[in-house]
Amino acid sequence: MLSFFSKGMNVDPASVAYETVNYAIQNKVDLAIIDTAGRLHTKKHLMDELTKIRKSIDKRLPGAPHEVILVLDATTGQNAIEQARQFTEATDVTGLALTKLDGSAKGGVVLGISDQFKIPIRFIGVGEGMDQLQVFNRKAFIDSLFN
Ligand SMILES: Nc1nc2c(ncn2[C@@H]2O[C@H](COP(=O)(O)OP(=O)(O)OP(=O)(O)O)[C@@H](O)[C@H]2O)c(=O)[nH]1
Ligand SMILES: [Mg+2]
Question: CA of 83: how far to CAs of 39, 55, 88, 96, in Å?
Fold first, then answer.
């Protein structure tokens, strides 16, 4: 079963996160993905909310979230380093996803980020389709950098 949990506009994101976990538990959902949506790393109050969101999730399900994925756009280049710095300071990021690798950007910057912040690369995006988010393959990625 696949469902989408929403509370509409202008609602406190931490309360949406709490209720999402509550919904997932009550409906015996295997996996809940919470999108923290449109969070600019330059807006302090939006970054501070991440801490609150994490606390609410943990309150409903101690130990959760089990994974926190930072999604980086391969076309942003060096700016991705600053994004990674800000997000890792705001919350405990456990994995990286690198999108837009279907364009001309090769996303090499993510190697430095993974190394510097000690976070594994988990997924890559190679298009807008649902099946175009793929599990990261280190050999294929390195090969593509030199092709
Ligand atoms: N070509 C291509 N397009 C992508 C990829 N990933 C996302 N997109 C497109 O990029 C646009 C923005 O994607 P979103 O997922 O909304 O980006 P976002 O970072 O969540 O944006 P905010 O939540 O507004 O901060 C959409 O049109 C996506 O379909 C990718 O791997 N390749
Ligand atoms: Mg979004």
Answer: 10, 22, 8, 12
